[in-house]
Amino acid sequence: MLNAERFKSWLLVLVLVCAGASSARAAVNARQLATAATAGDAAALVKLQASAGSGDLEAQYWLAMYDLQVRHDDMQAAHWLEHAAKRGSVPSQYSLGLLYTQGRGVTRDYAIAADWYRKAAAHGDLNAANNLGWLYAHGDATLPIDRVKAADWYRKAAQAGNPEAQNNLGWLYARGAGVPQDMSQARHWLQLAARGGDAQAQSRLDTLDAAVAPVPSVPVGSSPTLQPVTPVTRAVAPAATVAPAATVAPGAADAAVQAVQAWAHAWSAKNLPAYFGAYMPDFQPSPSVSHAAWVADRTARIAGKPTISVTLANVQDKVTGSQATVTFREDYRAGGVHFVGGKALVLQQVGGHWLIAQER
């Protein structure tokens, strides 16, 4: 027989699981409404506004992102972000920190920005930790420069795998700013950052012996943009069942290829709602990288590029039931970065749509 204490424990677990699942569904729904509103769906915008007004954290965050990107109403965006941030929305805390860093919709204030970044970093947001380092490295009238603290925050994010923080920490070691000058440590962190895709890190590796050091990089994610709400604690949606080999429905291959082409177009256009909407809601690039960390990293990388061009060639596909594998040669250009190479995407058919489940 289930005793009273065990029953209470079981009931608490059940409540938390149900709450997490509900939160995950709300996040997806809010993202879908924001995406539709961005495309001009007035009814979706009304629903998003109603949800935000009723106190839904995900809706408040998404409405703020809509205000920033579509309406260009920074003050209204700051209003919604503050509501959600005060109630514990980690993406809202991070984005509000960015607004205070930039002075968008609020008076620029590094001390207030640091408070919001610190809250987000406490829940695992690595970009927030990196940006805290940047604030302490630069300072303003509200936050004195403290390069020891800058190094500490860069290190927290760098050790957890954030390429931008690895780049910044490596350069502090190269300059002896906030840490003892150590060229071995500088190369170690810069090499990690370069392998992680940070374009500036390779340039810094090439100039370590230069007499004049480049200016440290600006905060990650310098332009807050629409991105999926990613609560730190969330229920992972069950993976869609992969059907066994079956007859391919007419047009399925074309639809999978079109989905990949739309993904490349959204990436090139820096349309983050469409870009993230091309993936499964719980997509993870690897078991060691959470969905939240991936979203934050991709948002920072895409938003931080002035222009992006992604073109696909030699596109081929193989569809088996509700799963498709699309291979292609990718030509990526952004600023001074140019990459050409083979790539494969595994897509899952969900609700009549092909969504990216794996990248290879």
Written description of the protein model:
The protein has 360 residues and is of the alpha+beta class. The protein has two domains: 159 residues, Alpha Horseshoe (Serine Threonine Protein Phosphatase 5, Tetratricopeptide repeat), CATH 1.25.40; 108 residues, Nuclear Transport Factor 2, Chain: A. The protein contains 14 helices and four strands. The chain has a four-stranded antiparallel sheet. α2 crosses α3, α3 packs antiparallel against α4 and α8 crosses α9. The radius of gyration is 22 Å and the shape is globular.
Keywords:
Serine Threonine Protein Phosphatase 5, Tetratricopeptide repeat, 14 helices, four-stranded antiparallel β-sheet, 12% strand, Nuclear Transport Factor 2, Chain: A, 360 residues, alpha+beta
Write the layout of secondary structure elements.
Blueprint: H1 4-38, H2 42-53, H3 57-71, H4 74-86, H5 90-102, H6 110-122, H7 126-138, H8 147-159, H9 163-175, H10 183-195, H11 199-206, H12 252-268, H13 272-277, H14 291-303, E1 309-320, E2 323-334, E3 337-350, E4 353-359
Antiparallel strand pairs: 1-2, 2-3, 3-4
Structural class: alpha+beta
Oligomeric status: single chain
Give me the CATH fold name of the largest domain. Answer: Serine Threonine Protein Phosphatase 5, Tetratricopeptide repeat
Helix content: 40-55%
User: What is the strand content?
Assistant: 5-15%
Low-confidence stretches: 10-22, 211-218, 220-248
Largest sheet, in brief, is: 4 strands, antiparallel
User: N- to C-terminal separation?
Assistant: 50 Å
What's the helix-strand series?
A: HHHHHHHHHHHHHHEEEE
